[in-house]
Amino acid sequence: MCGIIGYTGASPALSMVIDSLRKLEYRGYDSAGIALTGKAGEKLIVAKRAGKLSNLESALTSDHADSLSGIGHTRWATHGGPTDENAHPHISSDGKVAVIHNGIIENYIELKAELEKRGHKFSSQTDTESVAHLLSDEFNLSKDLADAMRKVCKRLRGSFTLLAISSDSPEVIVGARRNSPLVVGLGRGENFLASDVSAFIAHTKSALELGQDQVVQVSPDVVLVTDLDGKQVSAKPFEITWDAKAAERGGYTHFMLKEIFEQPKAISETLLGRFSNDSKVICSELASLNLDIDRILILACGTAYHAGLIGKYAIEQWSKIAVDVELASEFRYRKPFLTAKTLVITISQSGETMDTLMAARHAKELGAATLSICNTMGSSIARESDAVFYSHAGPEIAVASTKALLTQIVALKVIALYLAQNNKSLSSAQIAKIIAELLALPNKVEEILETVEPLRAMTRGFKDATSVLFLGRNVGYPAALEGALKLKELAYMHAEGFAGGELKHGPIALIEEGTPVIAILPPASSAISEKMLSNIQEVRARGANVIAIADASTPLDLKHVIRIPSCDELLQSILAIVPLQVFAYEMAVARGNDVDQPRNLAKSVTVE
Ligand code: M6R
Fold this sequence. Notes:
By secondary structure, the chain is α/β, with parallel strands linked by helices. It is built from 18 helices and 24 strands. Strand 17 (342-348), helix 11 and strand 18 (369-374) form a beta-alpha-beta unit. The chain binds 5-amino-5-deoxy-1-O-phosphono-D-mannitol. Residues 301-304, 348-350, 353, 356, 399-401, 489, 604-605 line the site of 5-amino-5-deoxy-1-O-phosphono-D-mannitol.
């Protein structure tokens, strides 16, 4: 969850590290810190501050300016509150070694007890500080930072990305990873180590993926990767396709707003190359698995889980293959029944969500093949899956997932259609019709975004509501769940999504005079259209203030109606989610919340 950067090269490390930390702040933002090396033997320069990165920046002085190597960290607290002392880097007792860490060291209590017996004094409540002391003890014996890191990693339990520098080897940065991300950015006469590529794409597009339990040593011209026994191993090179500009705010007030408006382009990118001129669906990733599939299990967390719930409807209806969708965090601790004919699809924007990664490993151990829908190249889930369907949303910086979600849903529709083509469960004409519907989505999303101002104004009128309910049926139900999640995450309001049919089984008791209820209506031709209209009447009769999202086929006598373009019923949630995103965004702005970095959250949930 924390952001990690290491830089060594000819440019001033201070500005390089701070610049990268700005790009990484979305990963965690309750404190930040840096450590820079000086000339050999000179003291490390360390600065760290609780709060946002700007607090650290104000604490920096000009004596930080000429270092050529350094490490930086933005934190999402796990062990110990967000204070100056608990901020990373953590420094060894002799002041010679600085360490930053993402993850959790599960055996830190026993390590701490051992280190205290050896005379080390601890100045923080973190699990990470033990690593700094252990590392310096090993470094003092071997005088080799990478060797010390290998020895220390063997003693650690849990998950970690670690970076360390030492005042005795000023140009060297050493990194290690286990179940937590670390990528190497390869520059000319400079190298980077980072928790994700957005930290360095402004400087280089060439990168290396590090494998599990690998240690990397970088200096300006050398990158050396080994396993924990010191055996040299080769890391997998890859080129980053993201544009550095895509990770900038580019004139928008918030990244989230920019990312909402990027959705038409993102969907087009997901669909690029997926259909031949004669309307054949192309999915070489799935074809490469060469599977006889009798069941699909989708695993994901948060918003990505909602993508899975939405995808289930199309996969089952079009391809006639049974689909289950499960929270990765639940699945990983179960003993489920999977066979070699089960295709497990994991969905993750970051490709680093710990629960999803562990669920994918669990599924593999149980004999299933894994396909991931992933947005981030070089990420752990992408690397460990049997095949990867890249969603090509581009960098998503706001903590709230928007364009990642729509592209995940679109990817699932492509997969559903590909399976239907293989199973011959849809005719060529039916497939061609759905392809046309999919290709029309970017323009339809654009149309919604062009007419979004009245929705924004209307949302501000609800800013003092204490609770908002979302109702939907069929694909509208997971869309309702997503609308509620977005609102909780951004507006810090009570919000819940319900299936329309469940209303009378309890949730209707929540309706009071004026309660805002957002109802997602299917096209009028749908079998559930009248059911949703009845639900609207039921909540209105009890005082609800209904906001309906519907296409033009349903006449509505309501004060608040948000019209979306018409489309295939199974694709409609893609369009309905856009106003829900705008609603949550605007509500957060109206309530004065930090839209891009909502409280207590972080973009990549790389710990349990
Ligand atoms: O990176 P992932 O797609 O695996 O992330 C999964 C969830 O943590 C993520 O979707 C989260 O729910 C979002 N912050 C919601 O907006």
